[in-house]
Write a structure and sequence with these properties.
The protein has about 120 residues and is an alpha+beta fold. The protein has 4 helices and 9 strands; from the N terminus they run E-E-E-H-E-E-E-E-E-H-H-E-H. The strands form 2 sheets. It has a 6-stranded antiparallel β-sheet. The protein has a 3-stranded antiparallel β-sheet with strand order 4-6-7. A hairpin with a 2-residue loop joins strand 2 (about 10-15) and strand 3 (about 15-20). It is globular.
Length: about 120
């Protein structure tokens, strides 16, 4: 897995990148009560706001970590937003995106670097 400074994790699954938030981010948010996901087929650019998470503490945006196309979303989070707290690194992925160049992932942190970031 790779990690962003915005506390997202990225995992390659075949020719797509699966995007979710880290356990650290989930803990900082508190109990998640609402998730809004992007539309499948949406073309996004790095930094575009593509999903919204609302918790008892705050609302946060998930931004596209890379340029690409949203090819799948995790509809289960709409019905059960609490999954984000229960399994942020597994069942609670947010969306999958197809990108042109998987080597772009080399620019992101590995687990050790991310752990150093969050202290």
């Amino acid at each position: 897995m790779k990690y962003t400074e915005d506390h997202e994790w990225l995992r390659v699954d075949g020719d797509v990148v699966v995007v979710g938030i880290t356990e650290h981010a989930s803990t900082q948010l508190g109990d998640v009560v609402f998730v809004e996901l992007p539309e499948v087929g949406t073309m996004v650019a790095t930094g575009d706001e593509v999903a919204v998470i609302e918790s008892v503490k705050a609302a946060s945006d998930i931004c596209a970590p890379l340029d690409g196309e949203i090819v799948e979303v995790n509809e289960a989070l709409v019905d059960e937003p609490g999954k984000v707290n229960a399994d942020p690194l597994g069942e609670a992925w947010f969306f999958k995106m197809k990108i042109d160049d998987l080597s772009a992932l080399d620019d992101f942190m590995d687990e050790d670097a991310y752990n150093e970031l969050i202290g």
